[in-house]
Amino acid sequence: IALLERSPNLRDEERLQLANLYWRIREPDTALALLDFTPDDPALVMESSGMRMDLAVLLGRTDVLGEEYQRWTAGNPVPDDGDMQERLLSLAVLFGEFEHAVALSEARFETTENPRYLAGKAEYHLILGQYGELETTLSTWNDLDPEAVATPRYWTLTAAVNQRQDRPEAAVSAFQKAA
């Protein structure tokens, strides 16, 4: 650490290395402060950003999380990297950016074929009041996942669609299936 700190002009890789060392010796505030730069190398951008987000979570720094989220959504709202998609999906929900959460859920489902992303996408459509899209997502979920109808989440969302379409009997039936 002392050797890196004495260097007058640290390269981006060295700054990341120094931040990582501070994190390992349990000085996360110092590590986070060292990461207050944007590397030139795109691979280092991903590493630096991921480390900043991890440290921000550890320190409860929603301001830093918000900065990283805004930086990513401005540059590449749906990155190719699955881990970054997961991080951004969590942050989109945290910051109430449900349109972005829908896009990220679609990307994650296309990559993983995990129906939990369809379930999340359906919930985001409900939050946004997008009942047509909600109904389409529920249909897709039901078609692709035979277990969908075994989950209370599916029936609760189905009940919301039925209630919105003024079908009270179908809504009650769906709520009963959810219970």
Can you characterise this structure?
With 179 residues, this protein is mainly alpha-helical. The protein is 76% helix and 0% strand. The chain contains 11 helices and no strands. The protein has helices at residues 2-6, 12-24, 28-34, 42-59, 62-75, 82-94, 98-112, 116-128, 131-144, 152-164, 168-178. Helix 8 packs antiparallel against helix 9 (131-144). The longest helix has 18 residues, at 42-59. The radius of gyration is 21 Å and the shape is elongated. The N and C termini lie far apart (57 Å).
Poorly predicted regions are none
Question: Which class best fits the helix and strand makeup?
Answer: mainly alpha
Spatial extent as radius of gyration: 21 Å
Strand content: under 5%
Chain-averaged pLDDT? 93
Mind describing the biggest β-sheet?
none
Total helical segments: 11
**Number of beta strands:** 0
Order of helices and strands: HHHHHHHHHHH
Judging from the principal axes of the Cα atoms, what is the shape? Answer: elongated
> Can you give the helix content as a percent range?
over 70%
Task: Give the N-to-C terminal Cα separation.
Answer: 57 Å
